[in-house]
Amino acid sequence: DQQVKQNSPSLSVQEGRISILNCDYTNSMFDYFLWYKKYPAEGPTFLISISSIKDKNEDGRFTVFLNKSAKHLSLHIVPSQPGDSAVYFCAASAEGGGADGLTFGKGTHLIIQP
Amino acid sequence: DVKVTQSSRYLVKRTGEKVFLECVQDMDHENMFWYRQDPGLGLRLIYFSYDVKMKEKGDIPEGYSVSREKKERFSLILESASTNQTSMYLCASGNSLLEHNEQFFGPGTRLTVL
Questions:
Q1: Each residue's pLDDT tens digit in chain A (114 positions)?
Q2: Which residues contact A103 (CB under 8 A, 6 or more apart)?
Q3: Which chain A positions have a beta carbon within 8 Å of B35's beta carbon?
Q4: How far apart are alpha carbons A89 and A47 in whole angstroms?
Q5: Which of A58, B47, B49, B88 could, after both became Cys, cross-link B66 (CB 3.0–4.6 A)?
Protein backbone atom coordinates (compact mmCIF):
# COMPACT_ATOMS: atom_id res chain seq x y z
CA ASP A 1 0.00 0.00 0.00
CA GLN A 2 1.61 3.20 -1.20
CA GLN A 3 1.19 5.91 1.42
CA VAL A 4 2.85 8.68 -0.57
CA LYS A 5 2.01 8.94 -4.24
CA GLN A 6 3.56 10.94 -7.03
CA ASN A 7 1.41 10.12 -10.01
CA SER A 8 3.48 11.87 -12.65
CA PRO A 9 6.70 9.98 -13.43
CA SER A 10 7.92 12.89 -15.52
CA LEU A 11 7.17 16.53 -16.26
CA SER A 12 8.56 18.78 -18.97
CA VAL A 13 8.51 22.57 -18.48
CA GLN A 14 9.95 25.43 -20.46
CA GLU A 15 12.69 27.49 -18.88
CA GLY A 16 11.29 30.55 -17.12
CA ARG A 17 7.84 29.03 -16.62
CA ILE A 18 6.36 27.60 -13.44
CA SER A 19 6.92 23.94 -12.55
CA ILE A 20 4.26 22.30 -10.40
CA LEU A 21 4.96 18.90 -8.89
CA ASN A 22 2.18 17.08 -7.10
CA CYS A 23 2.04 14.60 -4.26
CA ASP A 24 -0.82 12.80 -2.52
CA TYR A 25 -0.76 10.87 0.73
CA THR A 26 -3.09 8.50 2.50
CA ASN A 27 -1.78 8.31 6.06
CA SER A 28 -3.47 10.96 8.20
CA MET A 29 -0.77 10.48 10.86
CA PHE A 30 1.77 12.27 8.69
CA ASP A 31 2.61 15.64 10.19
CA TYR A 32 5.63 16.71 8.19
CA PHE A 33 6.16 16.77 4.47
CA LEU A 34 9.44 17.24 2.69
CA TRP A 35 10.69 17.60 -0.85
CA TYR A 36 14.03 16.25 -1.95
CA LYS A 37 15.86 16.82 -5.20
CA LYS A 38 18.11 14.18 -6.71
CA TYR A 39 20.61 14.34 -9.54
CA PRO A 40 21.84 11.11 -11.16
CA ALA A 41 24.62 9.34 -9.23
CA GLU A 42 24.14 11.63 -6.21
CA GLY A 43 22.23 11.33 -2.97
CA PRO A 44 18.98 13.27 -2.51
CA THR A 45 19.32 16.78 -1.13
CA PHE A 46 16.73 18.39 1.08
CA LEU A 47 14.83 21.19 -0.64
CA ILE A 48 11.92 22.43 1.43
CA SER A 49 9.46 21.16 4.01
CA ILE A 50 6.14 22.02 5.60
CA SER A 51 4.39 21.18 8.82
CA SER A 52 0.77 20.05 8.75
CA ILE A 53 -0.22 23.11 10.79
CA LYS A 54 0.69 25.33 7.85
CA ASP A 55 -0.68 25.51 4.33
CA LYS A 56 2.22 27.25 2.64
CA ASN A 57 5.97 27.54 3.00
CA GLU A 58 8.17 29.59 0.73
CA ASP A 59 11.92 29.61 0.19
CA GLY A 60 13.17 31.68 -2.70
CA ARG A 61 11.92 30.18 -5.97
CA PHE A 62 10.38 27.21 -4.17
CA THR A 63 6.96 27.14 -2.53
CA VAL A 64 5.20 24.15 -1.05
CA PHE A 65 1.43 24.15 -0.61
CA LEU A 66 -0.41 21.73 1.66
CA ASN A 67 -4.11 20.93 1.44
CA LYS A 68 -4.64 18.73 4.47
CA SER A 69 -8.31 18.01 3.82
CA ALA A 70 -7.46 16.71 0.36
CA LYS A 71 -4.26 15.03 1.58
CA HIS A 72 -2.42 16.76 -1.22
CA LEU A 73 0.69 18.85 -1.48
CA SER A 74 2.45 20.53 -4.34
CA LEU A 75 5.84 22.06 -5.01
CA HIS A 76 5.98 25.18 -7.17
CA ILE A 77 9.22 26.30 -8.76
CA VAL A 78 9.16 29.71 -10.37
CA PRO A 79 10.87 30.63 -12.56
CA SER A 80 12.16 27.23 -13.63
CA GLN A 81 15.85 27.06 -14.48
CA PRO A 82 17.92 24.43 -16.33
CA GLY A 83 19.62 23.39 -13.08
CA ASP A 84 16.22 22.40 -11.73
CA SER A 85 16.20 19.37 -14.02
CA ALA A 86 16.33 16.45 -11.58
CA VAL A 87 14.15 13.84 -9.93
CA TYR A 88 12.00 15.26 -7.14
CA PHE A 89 10.83 13.08 -4.28
CA CYS A 90 7.99 13.88 -1.96
CA ALA A 91 8.43 12.43 1.55
CA ALA A 92 6.42 12.36 4.75
CA SER A 93 6.91 11.57 8.41
CA ALA A 94 4.81 11.48 11.55
CA GLU A 95 5.45 13.77 14.52
CA GLY A 96 8.23 12.37 16.61
CA GLY A 97 8.99 10.12 13.71
CA GLY A 98 12.44 11.49 13.18
CA ALA A 99 13.80 8.16 14.28
CA ASP A 100 11.52 6.13 12.09
CA GLY A 101 12.55 7.12 8.62
CA LEU A 102 10.71 8.93 5.89
CA THR A 103 8.12 7.51 3.55
CA PHE A 104 8.94 8.50 -0.01
CA GLY A 105 6.95 8.72 -3.19
CA LYS A 106 8.31 7.21 -6.39
CA GLY A 107 9.58 10.52 -7.69
CA THR A 108 8.89 12.86 -10.60
CA HIS A 109 11.55 13.52 -13.19
CA LEU A 110 11.44 17.24 -13.99
CA ILE A 111 12.94 18.28 -17.31
CA ILE A 112 13.45 21.98 -17.94
CA GLN A 113 13.62 22.74 -21.64
CA PRO A 114 15.52 25.77 -22.97
CA ASP B 1 29.24 21.61 6.39
CA VAL B 2 27.23 18.47 7.11
CA LYS B 3 28.56 15.29 5.66
CA VAL B 4 27.45 11.71 5.16
CA THR B 5 30.00 9.52 3.43
CA GLN B 6 29.65 6.04 2.00
CA SER B 7 32.62 3.73 1.59
CA SER B 8 32.15 2.99 -2.12
CA ARG B 9 30.44 4.74 -5.00
CA TYR B 10 30.37 1.61 -7.18
CA LEU B 11 30.60 -2.03 -6.19
CA VAL B 12 30.38 -5.26 -8.18
CA LYS B 13 29.88 -8.53 -6.32
CA ARG B 14 29.00 -12.10 -7.16
CA THR B 15 25.92 -14.00 -6.08
CA GLY B 16 26.42 -15.53 -2.65
CA GLU B 17 29.13 -13.12 -1.53
CA LYS B 18 28.87 -11.30 1.78
CA VAL B 19 28.76 -7.55 1.17
CA PHE B 20 29.43 -4.71 3.59
CA LEU B 21 28.31 -1.16 2.87
CA GLU B 22 29.69 1.41 5.27
CA CYS B 23 28.28 4.80 6.14
CA VAL B 24 29.77 7.52 8.33
CA GLN B 25 28.23 10.83 9.41
CA ASP B 26 29.96 13.72 11.11
CA MET B 27 26.90 15.56 12.44
CA ASP B 28 26.52 13.69 15.75
CA HIS B 29 23.06 12.55 14.67
CA GLU B 30 21.32 9.88 16.71
CA ASN B 31 19.35 8.46 13.81
CA MET B 32 20.74 6.68 10.79
CA PHE B 33 19.00 4.99 7.90
CA TRP B 34 19.59 2.72 4.94
CA TYR B 35 17.40 3.03 1.84
CA ARG B 36 17.53 1.50 -1.58
CA GLN B 37 16.44 3.31 -4.71
CA ASP B 38 15.12 1.44 -7.73
CA PRO B 39 13.62 2.87 -10.93
CA GLY B 40 9.89 3.34 -10.61
CA LEU B 41 9.92 2.42 -6.92
CA GLY B 42 11.42 5.49 -5.28
CA LEU B 43 13.32 5.16 -2.03
CA ARG B 44 12.44 2.30 0.27
CA LEU B 45 13.59 2.00 3.88
CA ILE B 46 15.61 -1.13 4.67
CA TYR B 47 16.75 -0.60 8.27
CA PHE B 48 17.22 2.25 10.66
CA SER B 49 18.87 2.90 13.98
CA TYR B 50 18.02 5.52 16.61
CA ASP B 51 20.96 4.80 18.90
CA VAL B 52 24.18 2.87 19.15
CA LYS B 53 23.56 -0.89 19.06
CA MET B 54 19.87 -0.30 18.36
CA LYS B 55 18.28 -1.29 15.06
CA GLU B 56 14.80 -1.46 13.65
CA LYS B 57 13.45 -3.06 10.51
CA GLY B 58 12.16 -0.81 7.81
CA ASP B 59 9.82 -1.73 4.98
CA ILE B 60 12.07 -4.21 3.15
CA PRO B 61 14.56 -5.78 5.60
CA GLU B 62 14.63 -9.27 4.10
CA GLY B 63 18.09 -10.33 3.01
CA TYR B 64 19.80 -7.52 4.94
CA SER B 65 21.20 -6.90 8.38
CA VAL B 66 22.83 -3.86 9.98
CA SER B 67 25.38 -2.96 12.59
CA ARG B 68 25.80 0.20 14.62
CA GLU B 69 28.71 -0.10 17.01
CA LYS B 70 29.52 3.62 17.06
CA LYS B 71 27.24 6.61 16.83
CA GLU B 72 28.78 7.92 13.63
CA ARG B 73 28.89 4.63 11.72
CA PHE B 74 26.07 2.48 10.33
CA SER B 75 26.81 -0.59 8.24
CA LEU B 76 24.51 -2.49 5.93
CA ILE B 77 25.29 -6.17 5.43
CA LEU B 78 24.11 -8.44 2.66
CA GLU B 79 24.74 -11.90 4.13
CA SER B 80 24.49 -13.66 0.76
CA ALA B 81 24.11 -11.26 -2.13
CA SER B 82 21.52 -12.03 -4.78
CA THR B 83 20.88 -10.45 -8.18
CA ASN B 84 17.65 -8.81 -6.96
CA GLN B 85 19.78 -6.78 -4.55
CA THR B 86 21.35 -4.92 -7.44
CA SER B 87 20.37 -1.35 -6.62
CA MET B 88 21.45 2.11 -5.49
CA TYR B 89 21.94 2.10 -1.72
CA LEU B 90 21.57 5.38 0.14
CA CYS B 91 22.55 6.08 3.71
CA ALA B 92 21.05 8.98 5.63
CA SER B 93 21.29 10.50 9.06
CA GLY B 94 18.99 12.73 11.04
CA ASN B 95 18.14 14.08 14.42
CA SER B 96 14.70 14.27 15.99
CA LEU B 97 15.47 17.87 16.92
CA LEU B 98 15.75 18.86 13.29
CA GLU B 99 12.80 20.74 11.96
CA HIS B 100 10.41 18.46 10.10
CA ASN B 101 12.57 15.36 10.61
CA GLU B 102 14.75 16.12 7.63
CA GLN B 103 17.51 13.68 6.79
CA PHE B 104 20.86 14.17 5.15
CA PHE B 105 21.90 11.66 2.53
CA GLY B 106 25.22 10.28 1.40
CA PRO B 107 26.16 10.08 -2.30
CA GLY B 108 24.97 6.49 -2.64
CA THR B 109 26.57 3.16 -3.54
CA ARG B 110 25.63 1.58 -6.84
CA LEU B 111 25.81 -2.16 -6.16
CA THR B 112 25.70 -4.69 -8.98
CA VAL B 113 25.35 -8.37 -8.10
CA LEU B 114 26.31 -10.72 -10.92
A1: 789 999 999 999 999 999 999 999 999 989 899 999 999 888 999 999 999 999 999 999 999 999 999 999 999 999 999 999 999 999 998 865 555 678 899 999 999 999
A2: A3, A4, A27, A30, A91, A92, A93, B45
A3: 101, 104
A4: 10
A5: B47
Choose the closest CB to B48 out of A34, A51, A100.
Answer: A100
Burial of A107 (0-12, 13-18, 19+ CB in 10 A): buried
Q: How far is B20 from chain A (nearest CA, A)?
A: 19
Asked if B107's CB is within 8 angstroms of A43's CB, the reply is yes
Q: How far apart are CA A16 and CA B100, in angstroms?
A: 30
Interval B32-83: pLDDT, tens? 999 999 988 889 999 999 889 899 999 899 999 999 999 999 999 999 999 9
Say which amino acid occupies B48: F
Q: Which residues on chain B are in Cβ contact (under 8 Å) with A105?
A: 42
